[in-house]
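Technical note accompanying the year-one report. For the benefit of new consortium partners, we illustrate the data format agreed upon in the data management plan: each record pairs a sequence with a structure-token string. No post-processing was applied to the example shown here.
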Amino acid sequence: MKEIKAYVRGNMVDGVVTALGALEGVTGVAMVELRAFGHAASDGRLTMVDMVKLEVDVADRWADTAVDCIVRHARTGAGHPGDGRVFLSELADTVRISDGDRGEDSL
């Protein structure tokens, strides 16, 4: 199982979440609004950008598809350094609180 954490621009999040929702294997997306600071490409100063952190847990077989979907729908035009980043991590286990199902069955 994989955990995907994606930081995307606030104005791109609706398209990303809609596209993820259409994918087989994605059963939900958690979202946290935040403000991120990054270096501007032109002058190197820190600038603030409204970002959204998305978290998606998927079975291994859906991970690459979900990551590709996020990248495709979060990129602005030809791409920009402030478009965000995607992190992919291994999940050791998951447990659904309501019924105790574990592993992929809990996704």
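Partners are asked to follow this layout when depositing records. The first strand starts at residue 2 and ends at 9.
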